[in-house]
Amino acid sequence: MKFNTGKEGWVGKLEKSIKQHFSKVGKGWFNIEENSKETYEFGKLKKFLMMVNFMMQDTVLNLCKNSVHEFLEFMLDYIPDETLIANTANVKNVFKNRKLEKEESDDEIPILDSDLEGIKACKQWVNKSFKKNKDPEPLFQLDLIPPK
Predict the structure, then answer these.
(1) What is the C-alpha to C-alpha distance for residues 91 and 8, in angstroms, rounded to an integer?
(2) pLDDT confidence of residue 103
(3) Cα 43 to the chain's mean position, in Å?
(4) What is this structure's pTM?
């Protein structure tokens, strides 16, 4: 899945907003039309743009951390708490009732209004494609294989 970070994405919108609001400043500390490197180095515009850059890096870092945490929680929901093996043909996975941090239904991943468009599309695809079956059927059953 590709998140749009170009002209149409959040980076482009941020760039457009900064240019739009600083275009009216003219000469001074926040002149976006500055040609002198020395003046830019000592100006407040450089400090502001560095702060914006750090904020963007922090945002991407937090998005990545949250995504990894959500993926970990998602994967842990499908690991059994206990596996009971009676014999090679009879294996049972035991899942205890886990309370989720967010009150989610077992049917679907909730789609929030605050989600990015790409995340909404991904959640819709997951909800459509997969069911949360905590105790799935085995891939093969030995009793279906005809005896020799």
Answers:
(1) 52
(2) 47
(3) 36
(4) 0.50
Residue-wise pLDDT for 35-63, tens only, equals 888 888 888 888 988 998 998 888 889 88
| HEC profile of 25-72 | CCCCCCCCCCCCHHHHHHCHHHHHHHHHHHHHHHHHHHHHHHHHHHHH
98 exposure class (CB count in 10 Å sphere: 0-12, 13-18, 19+): exposed
Q: Which of 75, 81, 123 is nearest to 98 (CA)?
A: 81
Residues with pLDDT less than 70, the chain: 1-7, 97-109, 129-148
Q: Is the separation of the CB atoms in 91 and 85 below 8 Å?
A: yes
Helix, strand, or coil here: 126? helix
User: Cα–Cα–Cα angle for 99, 103, 109, nearest 5°?
Assistant: 105
